[in-house]
Amino acid sequence: MSSPAPKRRRTQREPSPPVYKLDDNEDVELYIPVAQRRQAKLAKLTSAGSSREQAARQKQQEEEDREDEEREEERRRERVRKERTLLMEAQEVHSKKAEEDSKKTTQEKTEEADAEILAAIASRRKLASDLELAKGVSYTESVKTSWRPPRFVTDRSEDQHRKLREKYHIIVEVPDILVKFLKSKRITKPTPIQLQGIPTAFAGRDMIGIAFTGSGKTLAFCLPLIMFALEEETRLPFVRGEGPVGVILCPSRELATQTYENVMMWTAALAKDGKYPQLNTVLCIGGISMGEQSHALNKGLHIVVATPGRLIDMLEKRRFTFDNCKYLCMDEADRMIDLGFEDDVRNIMSFFKRQRQTLLFSATMPRKIQDFAQQSLVKPVLVNVGRAGAANLDVLQVVEYVKQEAKMVYLLECLQKTPPPVIIFSENKNEVDDIQEYLLLKGIEAVAIHGSKTQEERQYAIKSFKSGAKDVMVASGVASKGLDFNDIQHVIIFSMPKEIEDYVHQIGRTGRSGKTGIATTFVNMNTPEQTLLDLKYLLMEAGQKYVIYASSQI
Ligand SMILES: Nc1ncnc2c1ncn2[C@@H]1O[C@H](COP(=O)(O)OP(=O)(O)OP(=O)(O)O)[C@@H](O)[C@H]1O
């Protein structure tokens, strides 16, 4: 038997690439598929294209460089040309100036040099740190130090100081616009209340200022407020809705108007030559339309002069706020309380959002107001010129006994004592009207003012009397408190007020700012005994030879 053939196993291999050979000596070109050949051609074409582009770019770059070089060369030549021209011009100017200078005096040359320096300084920013400039910080006050001049310096008279300055050729200049203005109003040196009161107010202290009528209290409390406002405005100008810095409260519309006019006059004087900013003051009194004040209310506000009622109204309507108000001054402070304004004043105080400086000024200061001051002021400084409530010594006080029914007739005789202007006071509104009517009938130019007159009538009376158009003003005490009329010769008190303080205020319309005047007071059986005793005491204290005349007609 035969053995079976071994099984073949099929080994599976990878197919090798086909090689076609005709014979062994012949090189055969390898076959490359169409797709591969196309790709190779494309790559060849691309590389040929990019080398052409590169060559073009290089050429362009070379051209640009050449152009740049040409331009630069041209500019350089131009610069050289210009420099030559400028040099020639400068040489020309210089030689011309040298020629002119040779004709000028030394004085002219110095002046010119100074002007050049000043112009250079003016064109520069002020010397301050960048932070200060960026923040707009501007200091207006000198730095305070504890240095005080020694006695041998303070003891020198003004004349000695002047001579010393002359000897050493020292020139001292103080900014004195306001001082100059006050001088033009014949205010050359401070009155006692100003001398002591102004520094006290400047020091930020609460204060009770008492000084006789006509002694310049208005300036004493207005000046510090004006300066505080000026300081704040200079530091950072006020915009609409900001302010006021301070408020001055007055018991009557007339007194508020007069104080407002004074503040306006002083602030205008400061702003006149543009050295100081214009301050904005508002008058808030009843009887006038606030539309008149809207121009002032539409700007940042510095000072408010007001009567209590209208002020509260404005604060409640938020026409302005006391959020930043720091200064509250009450003129005729005791009268404010007497007139029943105490609650109003408390109400006004409640509108302040921060500690305020409070000042009370008056010619008289009864016990009542002193108690009030204790409650509302912080460690107040009491500046009292003369005894509180004392009469002005520049007023000659005459008291005459005149029967009630003879008063009107005697008034005509009494008016002959002095030339006009004369003020007649009566406590009774009807009596004021009667007196005015009587005087008009007798051909005397008289105006009348009392609380029942309209605002226009009151303003007309004050204006025509102040201007000198009318010789006599008949007034109720309340309406004319604190009013400052020029050169009143004679005050006639037709009916004696019950309160002696009112009497002091009334006779105080004359004998103002150092001038003398006469006050004649009619008394009779109707005058209360206590009032007569107070009057007697006042006259004795004033050192007056008081005589109660019995009028010839009686
Ligand atoms: N230093 C001064 N020198 C001269 N006159 C002055 C001086 N200060 C103020 N006056 C003037 O004195 C007059 C009276 O001033 P002011 O009205 O302030 O007095 P007052 O003390 O408020 O009086 P009253 O108690 O009657 O209200 C004003 O006409 C004012 O211009």
Automatic annotation (TrEMBL):
> Known catalysed reaction(s)?
ATP + H2O = ADP + phosphate + H(+)
Which Gene3D superfamilies does the UniProt entry name for this protein?
A: P-loop containing nucleotide triphosphate hydrolases (3.40.50.300)
Top EC class of this enzyme: hydrolase
Start and end of every Helicase C-terminal domain? 394-554
Q: Name one Pfam family in it.
A: Helicase_C
Asked if the Swiss-Prot or TrEMBL record annotates the protein with the keyword Cytoplasm, the reply is no
* GO CC annotation terms, alphabetical: cytoplasm
Which residue ranges are recorded for the region named Disordered?
1-26, 39-111
InterPro entries, per this entry? DEAD/DEAH_box_helicase_dom, Helicase_ATP-bd, Helicase_C-like, P-loop_NTPase
Q: Which UniProt keywords apply?
A: ATP-binding, Helicase, Hydrolase, Metal-binding, Nucleotide-binding, RNA-binding, Zinc, Zinc-finger
Q: Which domain of life is it from?
A: Eukaryota
Q: What is its EC number?
A: 3.6.4.13
**Ranges of biased composition (kind: Basic residues):** 1-11
Domain named Helicase ATP-binding: residues: 198-383
Residues in the signal sequence: none
| GO terms of molecular function | ATP binding; hydrolase activity; RNA binding; RNA helicase activity; zinc ion binding
Query: In its keyword annotation, does this UniProt entry include Metal-binding?
Result: yes
Where is composition skewed (Acidic residues) in this entry? 62-72
Stretches of Basic and acidic residues bias are at 73-111
Name this polypeptide is given: RNA helicase
